[in-house]
Amino acid sequence: xxxxxxxxxxxxxxxxxxxxxxxxxxxxxxxxxxxxxxxxxxxxxxxxxxxxxxxxxxxxxxxxxxxxxxxxxxxxxxxxxxxxxxxxxxxxxxxxxxxxxxxxxxxxxxxxxxxxxxxxxxxxxxxxxxxxxxxxxxxxxxxxxxxxxxxxxxxxxxxxxxxxxxxxxxxxxxxxxxxxxxxxxxxxxxxxxxxxxxxxxxxxxxxxxxxxxxxxxxxxxxxxxxxxxxxxxxxxxxxxxxxxxxxxxxxxxxxxxxxxxxxxxxxxxxxxxxxxxxxxxxxxxxxxxxxxxxxxxxxxxxxxxxxxxxxxxxxxxxxxxxxxxxxxxxxxxxxxxxxxxxxxxxxxxxxxxxxxxxxxxxxxxxxxxxxxxxxxxxxxxxxxxxxxxxxxxxxxxxxxxxxxxxxxxxxxxxxxxxxxxxxxxxxxxxxxxxxxxxxxxxxxxxxxxxxxxxxxxxxxxxxxxxxxxxxxxxxxxxxxxxxxxxxxxxxxxxxxxxxxxxxxxx
Length: 506
Known about the structure:
single chain, 506 residues, alpha/beta, Cobalt-precorrin-4 Transmethylase, domain 1, Methyltransferase, Cobalt-precorrin-4 Transmethylase, Domain 2, Rossmann fold, 4 domains, 5-stranded parallel β-sheet, 18 helices, 20 strands, elongated
């Protein structure tokens, strides 16, 4: 819902979905699982000039923001440092009045215990346009991920959402506890972990049975979601004993008992409770990170490398009888310069690794040679058996192993190495380095990602190391770290499969 229809371009002259003059977008980011963000939320984040975000948003929610967007952390942590709401409201109004497109990104839904109504009223008072983008609220999503329907025929035909943490400055509570205790349905309490004793006592005092089922879901929909079950009589003690902490949702009512029958998350998420550091270049990490999150992992994005294209003109490809692609990046960089895949029609095409071959297929080329082992020695052996070769082109990174070019030259071939990109170290913050080394697993999909993480952190000790293939494993060992798992299939999917198998075996 919006205060007026969107316009075609914004204050910086771009054509995008959020209009020309300053405007505030109160956007719900959902409960935690990035897959539960709405399409509209993703669109607005991608087009925003400024994003003011809370702590409880999906880990990857800001990944789609523009590189030049201003990202401002205004998050509040229960019991910890607080950013005054008045400061946040004043800031979003100020940015919008400066002609900027402002996304106020909130966990869950902005109008469900999100103070979105206060911010909308402030926009009205200041004459600032605003739009509200609803989000999936945790009071529904967290129970659902724990196998608890908040309504169920024959058990509960109504549901009430209640804050378990009222403003401490209010002279009296706005919660009518006797009426709430008498409510004929499910009660979902937000932000009530620290007051769970009082909540349970008030409900029992108001007439709810002491043995009524209660479930508490911590970090609902995240990879490390945890749930406990109890009754009003013991749920506070059960929660404390299990180490459950905020953020969490407490569900009171008969439907809470369905968690025991309908809990589906464990089977669907074999990596639940595991943290995985992904060290690929930022532009390439999203696919493997999304797969890992779908499997339940908490993903630590620590892009140790970045890919920088090089200025290079392609030679006349018709003059080569063999073209050897050494990596996915080499394929992508060559086809970024190639107008027509038919330019390779007269050449034998070789690919090091199934991932490289798959990338070629995406560009309409079926590789003629794909060795079983994803190393230069293997492709050289197979090419030697198919040779001799007259002219060979090797599109690759600026720095690379010389095994293949030198081996073919020794056999009489004229070999041109075409550097199309360079791999550079990505700057990692101390928090990123600590998070990567503190993860349960670290995935390395190239030798350079291992080397650069080592340079940034000074060690690879800590997580179990999962390698995409032999060359990457050799690089890890050269850094003094043994490889715990090596993928049988040398692709991102193969790395994930190897990780899942290792978790299952342990």
